[in-house]
């Protein structure tokens, strides 16, 4: 087991960081999309209210 960690430990760490970064970006863009759609809803409500 120790030999495997010496041989592939850096590679596992590298790919783990990439996967973690992709997951964090996914959550960030999901949050930004929800925020944008909420702002569009408020704007449409104001336009309808003014008319």
What does this structure look like?
The protein is built from 1 helix and no strands. The relative contact order is 0.07. The mean pLDDT is 82. With 51 residues, the protein is mainly α.
Instruction: Determine the fraction of residues in helical runs and give it as a percent range.
Output: over 70%
The biggest sheet, with number of strands, parallel, antiparallel or mixed sense and barrel status, is:
none
Task: Give the rounded overall mean pLDDT.
Answer: 82
Terminal Cα span: 71 Å
Indicate the radius of gyration in whole angstroms. Answer: 22 Å
Element layout with pairings:
Layout (H helix, E strand, L loop, with lengths): L1 H49 L1
What is the gist of this entry?
This protein is mainly alpha-helical and 51 residues long. The protein has one helix at 2-50.
Task: Summarize this structure as a short list of keywords or feature phrases.
51 residues; mainly alpha
């Amino acid at each position: 087991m120790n030999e495997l960690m010496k041989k592939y430990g850096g590679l596992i760490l590298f790919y783990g960081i990439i996967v973690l970064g992709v997951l964090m970006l996914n959550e960030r863009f999901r949050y930004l999309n929800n925020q944008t759609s909420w702002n569009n809803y408020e704007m449409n409500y104001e336009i309808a209210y003014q008319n």
